[in-house]
Amino acid sequence: MKKIPFWETDVGNKDYEYQKKIFSLNYPNEGEYVKKLEDKVKKILQVKFCTALPSGTSAMFVALKILNLKSDDEVIVPNITFAATANAVSMASAKVVLVDVNTETLNIDINDLKKKINKKTKVIMPVHISGRSCDMTNIIKIAKKKKIKVIEDAAEAFLSKNKKKYLGTIGDMGCFSLSPNKIFTSGQGGLLVTNNKKYFDKIKVFKTQGRVGITSGGDDLHISKGGNFKLSNISAGLALSQLSYIYKRKKKLIQNYKIYKKNLNFKQFKILKFDVNNKELPLWTDVVCDRRNKLYNYLKKNNIICRKFWFPLSKRNFYSNQKHSSFKNTKKIENKIMWLPSSFLMKKKDQLTVIRKIKNFYQVS
Ligand SMILES: Cc1ncc(COP(=O)(O)O)c(C=O)c1O
Question: Is the distance from the beta carbon of residue 82 to the nearest atom of ligand 1 less than 6 Å?
Answer without folding.
Answer: yes
